[in-house]
Amino acid sequence: MAMTAREIAALVGSTIGFDGELRCVAAPADASVDTIVFAQDEDALREAVASAAGLILARAGAVGGGADDSRVVRVADPKYAFALCARALAGEPEAAVHPMAVVDPSARLGERVRVGAGAVIEAGAVLGDDVSIGSNATICQGVEIGSRVVVLQGAVLGSTGFGYARNAATGEYLLFPQQGRLVVEDDVEIGANTTIDRGALGETRIGRGTKIDNLVHIGHNCRIGRNVVIAAQVGISGSCVVEDGAVLAGQVGLGDHCRIGPGVILGGQGGVFPGKSVDGPGQVFAGTPAEPRADYLKSIAVVRRLRDQKAKR
Amino acid sequence: MAMTAREIAALVGSTIGFDGELRCVAAPADASVDTIVFAQDEDALREAVASAAGLILARAGAVGGGADDSRVVRVADPKYAFALCARALAGEPEAAVHPMAVVDPSARLGERVRVGAGAVIEAGAVLGDDVSIGSNATICQGVEIGSRVVVLQGAVLGSTGFGYARNAATGEYLLFPQQGRLVVEDDVEIGANTTIDRGALGETRIGRGTKIDNLVHIGHNCRIGRNVVIAAQVGISGSCVVEDGAVLAGQVGLGDHCRIGPGVILGGQGGVFPGKSVDGPGQVFAGTPAEPRADYLKSIAVVRRLRDQKAKR
Amino acid sequence: MAMTAREIAALVGSTIGFDGELRCVAAPADASVDTIVFAQDEDALREAVASAAGLILARAGAVGGGADDSRVVRVADPKYAFALCARALAGEPEAAVHPMAVVDPSARLGERVRVGAGAVIEAGAVLGDDVSIGSNATICQGVEIGSRVVVLQGAVLGSTGFGYARNAATGEYLLFPQQGRLVVEDDVEIGANTTIDRGALGETRIGRGTKIDNLVHIGHNCRIGRNVVIAAQVGISGSCVVEDGAVLAGQVGLGDHCRIGPGVILGGQGGVFPGKSVDGPGQVFAGTPAEPRADYLKSIAVVRRLRDQKAKR
Fold first, then answer.
1. Which of B93, C24, C172, C182 could make a disulfide contact with C158, Cβ separation 3.0–4.6 Å?
2. Does B88 touch chain A (CB under 8 A)?
3. H-helix or E-strand spanning residue C126
4. Is the pTM of this model over 0.90?
5. In chain C, which residues have their Cβ closer than 8 Å to the Cβ of A251?
């Protein structure tokens, strides 16, 4: 798809003094005359101006580094504007159910749904409009998925939760009923080979706009808020609550019945003990058990100093 | 499926003073007259009695909270009884090989086996009776699976192990032969996207009644005992032994050739160094390297106290 | 396939005083007259000599333990020689695209490629000669795979990376363009249910001879060197560099933009903070944040000593 420079400028809420056709986005090194690039700082702007790019997205207040180049379009957030342009130029993805996908006759699919080869949509699942299900992904029976949701390859949504009742006499485990629902709200994106369990009796819910990376596990009856970011290999045990806007970095682990407050940022490999709460909007936590990152770093420093003192004696 | 209240009471080894049809289990909030609910404590019992549920499973010794309600059936373990009722009411799941599953002609399937769409059963695999293989799961060649085993969506059983011989001159790695077996005993349940490798020369074995959550990795030549519980994202390196009744919480990691003693409980994110043993039935261990949980918590407290003292000076 | 003892001896660069047919490799306990076994030390050699094996690979300098047995073939590295023999005896695996695999017409496959049932090769993907793609694996569009690459069951290569631009006003996330490539060089082996993302604007690259275990995550724009070993459940965030010959043990986590130097060994569950570098060929690092293993162990000892002193008072 192609857009003119003036259409692009209008899209990102700015203006430009020339017109020409733009067809793609790229890094400066790969740019040609029909290419949009972006520059977050002055160094990047210098590199962009030196490239063959046809249009350069730069910060509104940028001076120096080539900010007076006629190809420069000034915006508040060049990276965000660049992502907007990329989406506009990509156009609509081809919407089709691959002939080698398996969609149960009782599943209901919205408009313009894309289902990849080998994907399985089980009985009673409901998908909104413009949903994309990747190859070899599985949407288990009865799962409800909103609009514009993207599920990558190999993900499993709505699997049986991991809850058991133990026979005290024999030590054997009996599956606790796992008959609840999984609801995935609009604009959620879910990574490759990620698994999200259905509720046991109630529901598991992933809030609108939340983004989930690859190989993440989310247990039964969790409630994940809106615009939450969950990086790769995070593990969230059953019945956790993660409030709106929280960010969980890679390999974070939450015990069951935890609560992560709105806007909390939890650093990589951090852990929260079962039943505990972590709170403080915009605050960064780290370590296991998670504590404010500044404290976490001080603890490390204290131990290392002590160790080195012992070594000297 | 429906059962009478008297049939339910008999199933859980108790009695009831009325009769009526029960058709499902649910949480009190979702209960109606044909629904069974359970109450582990007095608060829950009060909630259950206030609901429309037709039958309430409560502790044998419970007093107060509505324990004299005529719908109450007294049992030793209400949660366990509830799970028993759920299984009885669910009836037999529909047993069928989905037309879009791929079962190699040389694989042998027992009675009443269920294979989901997109699942692959490779050459020479053997499945016992009442086995359920989820959509898009893969049972690799020659894997032996007992009766009543449940394998969830996307799991891979019997993959090539990760063992190499290094060429000292070139630094290149050559696959060590991975020609052994994987044996999964009766009543094992295996989560979505979990991977279990076959043995290199010998076998990998998962003992009877063991339950494994999503995204778990079990390496070649491991021997996992009976009634072991392995939570999500646990990683077990090659040649480990996990004895009967052990519990590994989420994201635990075992180096190769570890041994976890019978009944040991290892807390979330805990780690065991290669070749080490952790022992003590019913004892809880935590941290990396794993130590008794009380010691682990004391270590954390000691470091934090020291850190805060430094801060004050 | 069968080979004579003299052919085997020649293959491993040694000699033998008799001839006979060998057909397989095994552990001593499972060996018969047509079987090759190996012995890394004297104890193992004693066990091998006591077995029915037809040929025994032992260290060149080995004395005692039965080193004078006529079946013994002396080599520099018995384990490596054993792996060589196993490969030679295995012969060529059956190369075929399973009728239930899905290969897009625009994908290009080399000679003798094997594709398992349920595997999906998307548009424009390119596979070299002698590549093996396991059942239910997904090779996403445009991924380039070299020769002799092995991809196990359920792996996803070339999935959309996890990069977003945040709308500062609304808190919503917009996908940053993920239009780059994934290049997998010759002789790479990739484990079951592992996920590797394509580049955002540039490329993700896995270097020649690198071996990757199950459930590993490698983010967009990473550059993994040659003959790197990456154990199960390792997580590598975007834009990391792992140099040639490095070894990452199980559950290691790297923040984004990390660099792991050539030949570095990083112990299980170790973590590296975003943007940090770990360097020192052949040196072993451990813990989070990773430090030389000797220091890591001293830190643990110091804390435990302090804790036990407190307890005594």
1. C182
2. no
3. strand C126-127
4. yes
5. 235, 251, 253, 271
